[in-house]
Structures are given as C-alpha cells and as structure tokens.
C-alpha cells in the first residue's frame, strides 16, 4: 500500500507568524516573533491613498484596447459592475467617477447635428434656386448613403470613430452633397431649356458632366495625397483626415455617377406637367438673381479690360496672404471641454503625509462648494511631478454639459486654482487634459531646459529659476513653473569601508541592515483567505524616526558578533535634488506653463523661445509633447501646401493636356486661402491642425471651380 504524506509548510495566518520561534533553549524557553516585533495584516504600501469625494476608496483604471469601441466598452463595464454590486460588503458600493464615453457620445452627436444642419441648408438652397421639393430630396437621399459607405470602408480599414476622423467627415459632408447637386442642377437645366423628359435629360446630363465629376474627384483626392506622407505624430493625425476625406470623395463620385442619375430619372417630373404658375417669391427671386448675374458679367468685363491693374492687386493679395499666415496666432489643437480637469498639489519636499492631507482637505472643501462638480477622485502620494508624501493629484469630473450651462471646465479649473493659491506651503495647478491623450499630461506647453555645457545641476537650477521668473512676468505667458520634484533635505550615510572590513563586516551586510530597517524588505508570500499576499519586514516606526536610531542598529560580522553601525558609519545632512531628468541625452529640468488669457499656445511658445535666447552659455531648451508636435506641424505646413498645389497642378495638366490651363486655374488658390485667413483672424481663432487641414481642402475646392 502507498499513501501520500502531506506536510503543512506555508503559514496561512497572522497568528502563525506571531508564533514563529526565533530562539529556544533546552529548558523549553523560547523567544517568538511576537516577543520582538509587531505582526499585523496591513497594506502593501502606505505611500499612496485614494479618496472619492473625501471618502476612502480604491480605484481601478481601465484602458481601452486598440480598436475597441469606447461607448460599448463603457456600457459593458457599468453592466458588469451592476452584476457584481451584490457581492460587496455592507456599506460599500461601486462608482464610475471618471468616464470618457460621455465626451465621445457628445462628439458624435455634434457630428450628427452638423450633418442635419448641412442637409437642411442644402434643402433650402436647392429649394431656393430650383423651387422644387423633388430636387431637394435627391441630395438628402444620396448623402446618408455616402456617409454609410464611408463608415463601412473605415471599419474594414481598421480606423475608428474619433475626433480626427469625425472632423474629416464634417468637411466631407459639403463635398458629398455637392456632387449630387451638380447632377440634379444639370438634369433640371436640360429639362427646362430643351424640354426633355427626365430620362432623356439624365442621359444627356451624364454625358456632359461625367468627365467633370471624374476630374473633380481626381483633384480633390489628389490634394490629400501629400498629407498621408507627413511624418511624426502630426502625420498620423493628417493621415486620418486624408483617408476619411478621400474615401468620402470617392464614394460621393461613385454615387453621383450611379445612384443620383437613377433618382433623377425616377423622382423628377417633366416641365409643364401639373405645373402651375411660379409663385410671387420665385418670380421675385429669379428676377433679382438674373440682375445679379448681369451685374457680375458687367464687372467681369470691366476687370478683363484692366488686367495689368488687376494683376497688381492680385500680387498685393498674395503678399497679404503670406503676411496673414505668418502673423496668425498658432496652436496645435484647440483645448476642449472634455467634462473634467486635473489638479496637481505639491508641498515642500520635507512635508509629511499629514501635512499633505490638510491641504487635500482644503481642496476637497472647495470642490464640494462648486455646483458644476459631479465627483472628485484624489490620489495621495502621486502627482504630475512624481511620487512622494508631499504630492497629490485630483481628477475632478463635472456634471453633464447641459446641467452646467454658463460654466466651462477651464473656468472651474481657474477658480479652484485661484482659491488654492491662498493655501500656504502648497502649489496647486489645475489644468485641462490634453486634446489628444498620451500626448502630454495636460494642456499647456512642455519645455525642457538642458545643460549642454556640463555646468552642473546647481547652475542648471539657477538658470531655470531665472527663466521661470522672466516667464511669469511676460504678458504672453501664465502659470509657468518647474514641473518636477524640487530639492530636498536628505540624510547621507558615510561608511568607512576599511574599518568595517577590519571588523569583519561586509558592505552588503551593512546595506541590507539599513535597507530593511529604514525601508522594507520583501521576504516571501503567504496565502490569506485564498489570496496570495506578501510578507514584508521593516523596523517599527518608533525605532526609525531619529538619525541616531540608525547608528544604533547592529550588524553581524564574520565571527557572529553583533556590532553597532556607529562603529564605522557617520551621518551628515545635505540638500540635493530628489529627481534627476535627462532629455535627449542632456541633464534637464522640465518646465510647464500656459498661454496668458486671450493668447494662443504658439504665441506663448514664441515668447519662451525669445526668453531662451538670453540663457547663459551652455544652456538651451527643447520642446516636448504636444508643444513639439505643434512645432513640427507648423514646419510641415509650407511643404504640404506646395506639394498639394503641385499635385493638383499635375493632375489638371494630365486632364487638360496643357500647362497654361492648369496655371490659370491655380491662380485662384491664393484668393481662397486668403479668405480663410481673414475669416480666422476676424473670429479670433488660431492656426491649428484643423485650420491646416482646411487650407489643404481649400486648395482642392478652389481648383475644382474650373469644372
């Protein structure tokens, strides 16, 4: 017979750990772990803590997988939490204080609203010029089909619905309906002028305008080709725009050549059948429109007789375009109200968790008085600048946009920051999240001051402090500060290695003793109620509060004797940086700031660059995060415009088999761009990525006017 032998080798309770025998004698006397230590079940780390609305909590951050749907994922998580709520102990509950899905839903809703607005405008414009309901129905049918096809192709291509692709779809809406309008107007014109039936008029119209539709499609598609080859993170943004636009344009052309003619032949009625007299408004509108057309023809004849003067005016307008582009305030992406803001709380380096908690209590009191705030998650021991007992970070979620009309996330963040400015010994910065996640920690700019001359940390810190003072006095800058853990007082232990070696004590033994006592040491794992937990050893708090207590620690030498650390260790206090940063291989200090009220991020970055010109020799600065992408975006714009113009010119030259006609067509492009620059200037907007995409689109739209 064989039987298994089982031995319980792993401890499974706190009581069993307390009863571990450290020393025993023949007389049965023994010393247990409970006699010399406090054994308890506690937290793995006391350096961090989480509170929600002032109540202790634990948090789990859930990251969306690549290609996943944010809205359905959020709904699935909430449904799962509802199922699990029944297993929670009494007095505990699940909450979702931070969720990006509502902002995604709102963004999609805005796209739908824009689409509906575009269709309503198309409806009224078609009704205004053609005076027929049937003519307006055709673009209203074709446009949703084109958008549905675009979404299908994007899904098959692995693209998701996000702010960038949705912006491309918004731009494409006008182009989608325009192709259908071109077909309908030409069919209607032939039916009116030549008294043709809808079927015959459709055939004739398609014979006339098919080359034009193909040419328009080629021009508009070609203009986005250079964007697809842009480099860096900006290139990824441009590619999403260009792909969504190109797909929409190609599908629009396909539908204009297939579905739209079929609808025209089916829905339109011959002229004279069941038609009464035109309404008074139609007659009035047609008369005034013909008068406006005659006025335009007269003005055109006047201009053609004075080409020399007109070319001088044209040259002046081109110069105005270049001047406008160079002086237009720039930014990377506009800051949006995403429904929350973040706050970083930083105390002096020697502040304890108790001091930090007092500041956190003040912060939470201010948050509790804000009507627009839905919830607040506070993380103790962690901040933008790093980890430590003197740091804390808050994620403040606001109520739904409809419930807080009249206030924005930026206004709430500014209010909290101004209120916390009165708290002594604490620096609180409240900022919006970046427009694109993972591209920086917050809105504003990120700048690294580098020590390229090997001047040392103290010289680098002095240069950074001087730069911060100058920046905060600059009218274009605001809230500029060093984003990092400052200098702190530290206790240095100096080991006389020769003396320790003579006493038979190894340096590893000294290091191990100090690490376990002052810090902690992971021993092993044990099973507690079905969960694997760590066993950690550390000197109890009362025995590691004073420097002299470290010197009183004993170390075993090679002979088994216990020697105090004071025999070969001395202590000294010094001030040193808690955090050392290198950027692009150079020692650096990270500087964060924002643009002043009413100023763009590009203006703020230019102000920082001007201040950096006066840095001492051996120091220089570089941009990072979204600020770096803004720089790259601005540097790529001239090349993109030139390449887009060149590609469109080559396509036109291939279509017309001529060099002169494309040249004449491209002359209108600067005028279209000038109009965009003037519109942005008048509305106090900035030269951001959206504007740059709009400029590229205008190049194609201006060139298509030839068709």
Walk me through the structure.
By secondary structure, this protein is α+β, with helices and mostly antiparallel strands. Among the domains are: 6-40, no CATH class; 100-274, Multidrug efflux transporter AcrB transmembrane domain (Multidrug efflux transporter AcrB transmembrane fold), CATH 1.20.1640; 337-431, Alpha-Beta Plaits (2-Layer Sandwich), CATH 3.30.70.1430; 488-577, 2-Layer Sandwich (Multidrug efflux transporter AcrB TolC docking domain, DN and DC subdomains), CATH 3.30.2090.10. It is 51% helix and 17% strand. The protein is built from 22 helices and 19 strands. The strands form six sheets. Strands 4-3-6-7-5-8 form a six-stranded antiparallel sheet, with helices on one face. Strands 9, 10, 17, 18 and 19 form a five-stranded antiparallel sheet that branches. A hairpin with a 2-residue loop joins strand 3 and strand 4 (55-56). The longest helix has 32 residues, at 625-656. It is elongated. 29% of the residues are buried. The model has no long low-confidence stretch (mean pLDDT 83).
Low-confidence stretches: none
| Radius of gyration from CA coordinates | 35 Å
- The CATH first-level class of the domain at 100-274 comes to Mainly Alpha
Distinct helical segment count: 22
Number of strands: 19
Percent of residues in helices comes to 40-55%
> How is the largest sheet built, in terms of strand order?
4-3-6-7-5-8
Under the CATH scheme, the architecture of the domain at 100-274 is Up-down Bundle
What is the CATH superfamily label of the domain at 100-274?
Answer: Multidrug efflux transporter AcrB transmembrane domain
Question: Hey, roughly how much beta strand do the residues contain?
Answer: 15-25%
């Amino acid at each position: 017979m064989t039987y298994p032998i089982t031995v319980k080798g792993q401890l499974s309770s706190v009581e069993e750990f307390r009863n571990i025998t450290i020393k025993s004698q023949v007389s049965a006397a023994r010393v247990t772990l409970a006699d010399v230590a406090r054994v308890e079940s506690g937290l793995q780390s006391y350096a961090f803590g989480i509170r929600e609305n002032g109540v202790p909590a634990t948090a789990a951050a859930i990251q969306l997988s690549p290609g996943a749907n944010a809205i359905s994922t959020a709904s699935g998580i909430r449904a799962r939490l509802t199922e699990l709520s029944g297993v929670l102990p009494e007095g505990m509950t699940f909450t979702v204080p931070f969720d990006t899905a509502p902002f995604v839903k709102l963004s999609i809703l805005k796209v739908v609203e824009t689409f509906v607005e575009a269709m309503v405008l198309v409806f009224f414009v078609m009704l205004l010029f053609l005076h027929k309901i049937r003519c307006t129905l055709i673009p209203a049918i074709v446009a949703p089909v084109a958008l549905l096809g675009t979404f299908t192709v994007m899904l098959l291509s692995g693209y998701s619905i996000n702010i960038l692709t949705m912006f491309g779809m918004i731009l494409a809406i006008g182009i989608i309906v325009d192709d259908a309008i071109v077909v309908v107007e030409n069919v209607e014109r032939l039916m009116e002028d030549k008294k043709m039936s809808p079927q015959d008029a459709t055939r004739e119209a398609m014979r006339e305008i098919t080359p034009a539709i193909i040419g328009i499609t080629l021009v508009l598609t070609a203009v986005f080709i250079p964007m697809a080859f842009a480099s860096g993170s900006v290139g990824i943004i441009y590619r999403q725009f260009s792909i969504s636009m190109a797909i929409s344009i190609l599908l629009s052309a396909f539908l204009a050549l297939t579905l739209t003619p079929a609808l025209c032949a089916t829905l339109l009625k011959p002229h004279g059948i069941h038609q009464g007299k035109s309404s008074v408004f139609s007659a009035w509108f047609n008369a005034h429109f013909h008068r406006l057309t005659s006025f335009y023809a007269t003005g055109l004849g006047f201009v053609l007789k004075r080409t020399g003067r007109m070319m001088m005016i044209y040259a002046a307008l081109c110069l105005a375009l270049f001047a406008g582009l160079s002086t237009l305030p720039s930014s990377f992406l506009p800051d949006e109200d995403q429904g929350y803001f973040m706050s970083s709380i930083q105390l002096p380096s020697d502040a304890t968790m108790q001091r930090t908690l007092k500041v956190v209590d003040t912060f939470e009191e201010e948050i509790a008085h804000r009507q627009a705030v839905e919830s607040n998650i506070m993380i103790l021991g962690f901040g933008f600048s790093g980890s430590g007992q003197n740091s804390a970070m808050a994620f403040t979620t606001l109520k739904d946009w409809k419930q807080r009309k009249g206030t924005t996330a930026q206004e709430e963040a500014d209010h909290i920051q101004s209120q916390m400015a009165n708290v002594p010994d604490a620096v609180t910065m409240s900022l919006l999240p970046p427009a694109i996640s993972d591209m920086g920690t917050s809105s504003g700019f990120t700048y690294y001051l580098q020590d390229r001359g090997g001047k040392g940390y103290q010289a680098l810190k002095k240069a950074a402090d001087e730069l911060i003072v100058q920046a905060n006095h600059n009218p274009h800058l605001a809230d500029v500060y060093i984003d990092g853990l400052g200098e702190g007082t530290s206790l240095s232990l100096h080991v006389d290695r020769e003396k320790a070696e003579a006493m038979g004590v190894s340096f590893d033994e000294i290091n191990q003793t100090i690490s376990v006592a002052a810090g902690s040491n992971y021993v092993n794992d044990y099973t507690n109620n079905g969960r694997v937990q760590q066993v950690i050893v550390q000197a109890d708090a009362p025995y590691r509060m004073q420097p002299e207590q470290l010197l009183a620690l004993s170390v075993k030498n090679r002979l088994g004797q216990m020697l105090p650390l004071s025999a070969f260790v001395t202590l000294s206090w010094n001030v040193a940086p808690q955090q050392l940063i290198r950027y692009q291989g150079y020692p650096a200090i990270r500087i964060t700031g924002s643009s002043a009220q009413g100023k763009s991020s590009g203006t703020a970055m230019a102000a920082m660059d001007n201040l950096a010109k006066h840095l001492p020799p051996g120091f220089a600065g570089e941009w990072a995060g979204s600020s770096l992408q803004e720089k790259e975006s601005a540097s790529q714009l001239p090349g993109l415009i030139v390449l887009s113009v060149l590609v469109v010119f080559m396509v036109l030259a291939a279509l017309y088999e001529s060099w002169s006609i494309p040249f004449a067509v491209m002359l209108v492009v600067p005028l279209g761009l000038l109009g965009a620059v003037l519109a942005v200037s008048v509305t106090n907007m900035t030269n951001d990525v959206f504007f740059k995409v709009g400029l590229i689109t205008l190049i194609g739209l201006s060139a298509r006017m030839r068709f």
